[in-house]
Specification:
This protein is of the alpha+beta class. The chain is built from two helices and six strands; from the N terminus they run E-H-E-E-E-E-E-H. A hairpin with a 4-residue loop joins strand 2 and strand 3. It starts with 9 loop residues before the first strand and ends in an 18-residue tail after the last helix.
């Protein structure tokens, strides 16, 4: 999956909900990198990496729809929004990204829930409130 040859039609600053960012960071630490999520209803595949998250249109897996990148992790607390750059590759992709983030959160929760409990670390998965 790559998009080096496809320029974004719009690039803009974005303020990412800290619950989404924190959940992805935890998932990458627990599950490894990259994480690939398939979102059949949305016809999207999401590739999560430490430095960028890219949503691809499923039938054409090399065609990006949206990318979040350049995460500014210098914030005063975990509850602070994370500034990043949002790249849009399709004229209607901005309509889809809230649904993609919500589905990403659901799938990551399920994946983390399936991991063996680690009582020695005091860690048990719990639902992040993203409202």
């Amino acid at each position: 999956m790559g998009s080096a040859s496809r320029p974004a039609i719009k690039t803009m600053p974005y303020s990412l909900d800290p619950a989404f960012y924190n959940h992805v960071r935890l998932s990458l630490m627990r599950l490894g990198e990259p994480i690939h999520l398939s979102m059949g209803k949305l016809q999207v595949t999401l590739q999560l990496e430490g430095q960028q998250w890219t949503a691809y249109f499923m039938p054409e897996s090399d065609m990006p729809l949206i990318r979040w990148q350049d995460f500014d992790v210098h914030r005063s607390g975990l509850n602070e929004p994370v500034a990043c750059t949002l790249l849009l590759y399709h004229y209607q992709s901005w309509l889809m990204f809230p649904q993609i983030l919500a589905e990403m959160d659901r799938q990551l929760h399920r994946l983390l829930e399936d991991l063996p409990n680690r009582p020695e670390m005091g860690w048990k998965p719990r639902r992040l409130d993203t409202r």
